[in-house]
Amino acid sequence: MTASASPDPVDGADLKDLRHDVEDTAQLAAERGRGLAAAARKQAYAYVDQRKGEAARSVGDIAQSIRDSGRTFEDRPNLRAFFDSAAEGLDGLAGSIERRGLEDYYAEAEAFARRSPVTTAVATFAAGFLLARFIKASGEPETAFDRDYRA
Predict the structure, then answer these.
(1) pLDDT at residue 15 greater than cutoff 90
(2) Average pLDDT over residues 68-90
(3) Between 149 and 53, the higher pLDDT residue
(4) Residue 89: is its pLDDT beyond 70?
(5) What digits encode the pLDDT tens for the residues 94-109?
(6) Phi-psi region of 35 (alpha: psi -120 to 50; beta: other; left: phi over 0)
(7) Would residue 106 count as lying in a domain?
(8) CB-based contacts of 102, cutoff 8 Å, min separation 6
(9) DSSP string for residues in 69-88
(10) Is 95 domain-assigned?
(11) Environment class of residue 146 by beta-carbon count within 10 Å: exposed (0-12), middle (13-18) or buried (19+)?
(12) 136, pLDDT greater than 50
């Protein structure tokens, strides 16, 4: 008996049905994934909107502290002007935080990354390095056994 080189028609139909089922499942998973991403994005925006008022107040408080510190330099107008300028800059930042939304900051960060990809890559690398060092440093404390083992 020799094996036939042509595919079995039943197997071909089963393969088409299986392929159709897999495609349907993939489409359903993609739709659910998009829905989940949209829900997560909406929740993140709501969270940021709630917290941006607190952040703006904190920055405003820092500006006021700097302004108050600058008042001690009444006899040095150049130094006092420096403190006042820093406080005005922070007040501007506080107002910007209050007025703008997460979408604005995201668009600005994206535009910066497009204008300066090397700077973005270096900053990302540095942040990752610092995060790794922080995680490593905040790990489990070294035991006497670990010290003896390395020695």
Answers:
(1) no
(2) 89
(3) 53
(4) yes
(5) 998 888 877 887 888 8
(6) alpha
(7) yes
(8) 44, 45, 48, 49
(9) HHGGGTT-HHHHHHHHHHHH
(10) yes
(11) exposed
(12) yes
Looking at the domain assignment, is residue 4 inside a domain? no
Average pLDDT, rounded, for the chain: 83
The structure tokens listed for 72 are 């001690």
Nearest to 93 by CA among 67, 48, 58, 47: 58
Residue 5 has pLDDT above 60, yes or no: no
**Residue 116 lies in domain:** 22-150
CA 71, 90, 98, 54 dihedral sign is: negative
Quote the Cα angle for 143-149-151, to 5°: 110
Residue 11 is assigned to a structural domain of this protein:
no
Domain count, the chain: 1
pLDDT of residue 92: 92
Cα angle: 67, vertex 99, 59; to 5 degrees: 30
How many whole angstroms from its chain centre is CA 78?
A: 39
Helices (H), the chain: 9-70, 77-99, 102-115, 117-137, 144-150
Within 8 A by CB and 6+ apart from 90, the residues are 59, 60, 62, 63, 66
